[in-house]
Design brief:
Helix content is 38%, strand content 17%. It is an alpha/beta fold.
Length: 669
């Protein structure tokens, strides 16, 4: 039988005449990870304060580690680091606190040695000499955890520590925290509003309901991140909250929602409360007659999508099934239209209805876990996955070129005007972040991550915001601009809430934003399937170039993308509008670049230049892996070059796209 670290028996907490907690019974065992979830106001943080000793119950008994000579330490959503202390000295505070109650007997030398050991053990030893202002949000939260565990507490309490982080950083921190918990033998209690986070991290999950109800404790069925991708575990957990208001607060009443969303625009398919609010808010902002028709019409695509007769396509080869995952942006157009037009089916590949994901992190998890087989991914996210996260991915082809822009508030006239303001990017490992920081450096502005903007400062704070949130944030004034894939830039123009300051394709000529990615096993074990899939994508790209207006309509009318048709048409059909040259959004009309273009060839020079650019780009992540990455070697390892070349040869070659096999990268911020 495991030892109990802490125990609550019949605990009630009352504020005035209202019971916040009532009759709570809970036992926390040595080494377990307990996640507490519940709607706002259910008393999650209050329960944590009771466990920490900061809140005395109105009734009931509490046994804490301190009663047996142990200790409890807490980590909050804000790291609360002292700005005048280095990371090492901030962590040493954990020992100084303990010295105050007589339980740390080591001297300064021993304390410093212990701090070095903990920083090294937690994988952040290289941060020891930095100050908080030099840390990213993820790094600062790691330091806060190190400060809490340095004195070897029996119980670690965490109150939504990752709530302010972007999805990819949050996923990285979740995995890191789980490894820290196991390596240090901690007993951990985590308060979270995120059901997926509770399922992933918790051995057990405590469910707190609104009002004075007993605590319900269940065992998490999830042991691996990929088990979250179909949403089943989350829906089963959500179904335990009987009140519609509770379910809505935790992510929407989707207990009956299908595993594969029928409509990309349906807020019930959102995997978190934040995403549900994002989708609902964005649809309200982007409201147009076409959106209404999309939401009320039946899923015509489900019965008529042309996937072609499996195994009988003109491309020959054995029949295969590939599941498509995508984000609702124009970057996904080749994958979606290769499915919609039957190009996959004609080559003996069955593609079920493409699965829409709300963010890059769940899309990556779905690919890694085998829930989808072929996706579009940001560059250089594909590089980070292969060399940092060790996810064995392969690039088959470029999805498209250009297709992004720096969109700003109407009163912003120059990049210099962004100094002292806040600008959003969709992900740290994105060509958007790379291009934005090139523009800022050219303007003499330093990109910062955790320093709030101030008047007169020659800095711009970068924040990660989901693309669907960006127009709303710009309209509200919480950001001065964003750089992201279309059609969110066109949407700002169509709605009159912002303007294009610079097209990314006018900074880095005809660069790749997204690439087509599969797991390496497909290339290794089924190269013929990978070849035919690449041919289908190339055929779809040629079809888009041949009729851009029809492609925009199909993406909208086929209910693949929820944005209004005018925004999609603007992206696909706008080309070198003189007004953009006059405004400075296009400074190189001689490049004759399309707003979004489509060609599949993965140029080696681009991959190498992108690796070099990443090394000078500020991101909220550990980038030590980049230091030893050879730009000249990455392309041959990351890209399935033989398959890409063979597929091009089989579909008319690069001449069909008016492109050459070799090019020199042109970058002009």
């Amino acid at each position: 039988m495991q030892q109990k670290i802490a125990e609550l028996a019949g605990v009630s907490v009352r504020y005035g005449r209202q019971d916040v907690l009532s009759g709570i019974d809970l036992q926390i065992e040595q080494g377990e990870f307990l996640a507490l979830v519940g709607p706002s106001g259910a008393g999650k943080s209050t329960l944590l304060r009771v466990l920490s000793g900061l809140q005395a119950p109105a009734s009931g008994t509490v046994r804490r580690p301190e009663d047996d000579g142990g200790a409890t330490r807490s980590v909050f959503q804000s790291p609360h680091l002292l700005p005048w202390r280095t990371v090492a000295r901030n962590v040493r505070l954990g020992l100084e606190y303990r010295a105050n109650d007589g339980r740390w007997l080591g001297g300064k030398t021993a304390a410093d040695q212990r701090v070095r050991e903990v920083l090294s053990d937690l994988g952040i030893g290289d941060l020891a000499g930095r100050y908080p202002a030099q840390l990213s949000g993820g790094q600062a939260q790691r330091v806060a955890v190190a400060r809490a565990v340095v004195a070897g507490p029996s119980l670690l309490l965490l109150d939504e520590p990752f709530g302010a982080l972007d999805p990819l950083t949050r996923a990285d921190l979740q995995d890191w925290l789980r490894s820290v918990h196991a390596r240090l033998g901690l007993s951990t209690v985590l308060v979270t509003h995120d059901l997926d986070e509770a399922l992933l991290l918790g051995d057990r999950i405590g469910l707190l309901h609104a009002g004075p109800h007993p605590l319900e404790v269940v065992t998490s069925p999830v042991t691996r991140r990929e088990q979250l991708t179909d949403g089943l575990a989350r829906r089963e957990l959500l179904a335990r909250f009987s009140s519609p208001a509770e379910r809505d607060d935790l992510g929407g009443d989707d207990s009956a929602a299908p595993a594969v969303p029928d409509s990309p625009a349906d807020p019930r398919t959102a995997s978190t409360r934040r995403e549900a609010l994002t989708i609902t808010g964005s649809l309200a902002l982007l409201a147009a007659p076409v959106i209404g028709s999309l939401l009320t019409s039946g899923d015509r695509r489900a019965a008529t999508a042309a996937t072609g007769p499996a195994g009988h396509g003109g491309g020959g080869g054995t029949a295969a099934t590939l599941r498509i995952g995508y984000l609702p942006i124009t970057d996904a157009a080749p994958l979606l239209l290769a499915h919609d037009s039957g190009e996959f089916g004609r080559r003996g590949i069955t593609t079920p209805a493409p699965i829409l994901y709300r963010g890059w992190a769940p899309l990556v998890e779905a690919l890694q876990g085998g829930n989808v087989d072929i996706v579009h991914l940001l560059m250089p996210l594909a590089i980070q996955l292969r060399y940092d996260a060790k996810v064995p991915v392969k690039v088959l082809a470029w999805n498209h070129a250009n297709g992004s822009a720096l969109t700003v508030a109407k009163d912003v006239e120059r990049v210099e005007d962004l100094a002292g303001t806040k600008v959003a990017v969709p992900a740290w490992f994105s060509v958007h972040n790379v291009v934005l920081q090139k523009l800022l450096r050219k303007a003499g502005i330093e990109a910062v991550l955790d320093t709030a903007p101030s008047a007169g400062a020659r800095t711009t704070q970068l924040v990660v915001i989901p693309p669907a949130d960006m127009p709303t944030a710009l309209q509200s004034g919480s950001i001065s601009g964003y750089i992201v894939a279309e059609p969110f830039c066109a949407a700002a123009e169509v709605l009159g809430i912002g303007k294009i300051l610079r097209f990314t394709g006018d900074v880095w000529k005809d660069h790749a934003c997204c690439v087509t990615v599969v797991r390496e096993t497909l290339v290794r074990d089924n190269p013929d399937v990978a070849l035919r899939a690449t041919e289908a994508i190339i055929a779809a790209q040629l079809a888009i170039r041949a009729d851009r207006e029809a492609s925009a309509r199909r993406l909208s009318e086929g209910r693949y993308l929820p944005q209004p048709l005018p925004a999609l048409e603007r992206v696909f059909t706008t080309r070198r509008d003189p007004a953009y040259v006059t405004s400075g959004a296009i400074r190189h009309p001689e490049w004759e670049s399309q707003r979004i273009d489509f060609q599949p060839h993965p140029y080696p020079g681009y991959t190498g230049e992108l690796v070099r650019a990443m090394k000078e780009t500020v991101v909220d992540a550990n980038v030590t892996w980049l230091e030893h990455l050879d730009p000249a070697q990455v392309h041959g390892d990351l890209v399935a070059t033989d398959i890409s070349a063979a597929a091009l040869d089989a579909t008319g070659g690069l001449s069909a796209f008016g492109a050459a096999r070799v090019r020199t990268e042109v970058i002009a911020p």
